Amino acid sequence: MHTVNVEIQANKPYNYPIFIGNGILEKAGSYLKRYIKAKKLLIVSNQTVYSLYGEQVKKSLLAEGFNVEILLLPEGERHKNINSLEKIWTKAIQYKLERKDAIIAFGGGVTGDVTGFAAATYLRGIDFAQIPTTLLAQVDSSVGGKVAVNHQLGKNLIGNFYQPKIVIADTAVLSSLPLTELKVGLAEVLKYGFIEKTCGLNKINSSFIDFLEKNKDLIFSLNPSILEELVKYCCELKACVVNKDEKESGLRAILNFGHTIGHAIEKCYGYNNINHGEAVAIGMKGAFFIAGAKNLIDENYVQKSINLLDDYKMSYKIDKNFTPDDLYESMQVDKKVQAGKIRFILPVSPSEVRIFDDISKEEAITAIKTLY
Ligand code: NAD
Ligand code: GLY
To answer: Could you tell me if 155 and 225 lie in one domain?
Structure first.
């Protein structure tokens, strides 16, 4: 079992633990008891996750004396919206949740984001905890406090920063994850390899890319100790970034490596027929091509990185249903655009990236053309 501490440097400094371990779900109640003062808990989940692991979690919460109410939301990105939010608020009111009580997100990133936003707004904010059950949620979305719902005009447009009191990540639950969902998480894991040094964790002699190259087969076969180590290290990297820049006024933008093109691809596909991991993997390749063409990095590093993505079965291409110009157009309306400038996170040396606001349309389009 590992613990990663997330420290937030706010007006009122704040920290919380992420517990990571194989099979720790059955102790969820005792972990929560240490960090949450609530008597009543509202557990928000979905049918898939709850039918697999719900009874185990509920039993452990009841054993610690919590009163527990369950709300199952419809699943999928299209339900990360105001309707789901309203369902949580309504259930919380009916269940008479008070300020001292808590809401628990139990599921993937969709559940975590919408539940976190509900917790941030119900009674102007009540305690919140995350029990992430996808790889993406364990290495990324449950850490760092970004909570949001989608608006029909765009993804994650309505949200807040609202940190949980505790995160409990049981890596054993990843065994029931479909391979496509595992690969969505792995795309974000590879991202950490490409941004590792810029995160500033400064672990001596550590190269996450080497770890990922060496342990690919063990990762795909869900080796328990390798998975724990993987999730722990990604959480440490993200915690280090969030510690320095909770509200994304600078450094935190590096977590969007590959996402400038990635989000535009998802948008052009109408969030159908492509998943987030596929889009981000293509976007990371695009970032490498732009950086290579600008001589920011040498050809060897570009090739090594593309090979790593291919080894992880991320050899995705864009369908030709829309043009590079369409994609560029989409990038211009992303929420990462600042003062009309598209922001790219580009590699500048192995495992190091920098934020660029001056990539020309021509440079971007030239790279995008290689992604078809
Ligand atoms: P998801 O929550 O939709 O989960 C994917 C699927 O896996 C769902 O069908 C779910 O029911 C199922 N599932 C979950 N756990 C399972 C398990 N253990 N076994 C079997 N099936 C399981 O998708 P996701 O990839 O976890 O999250 C994507 C969301 O995360 C997006 O909305 C994205 O915007 C958000 N996100 C947020 C942040 C952040 O910082 N808040 C960061 C990255 C992504
Ligand atoms: N996933 C990007 C962030 O948390 O900032």
So the answer is: no
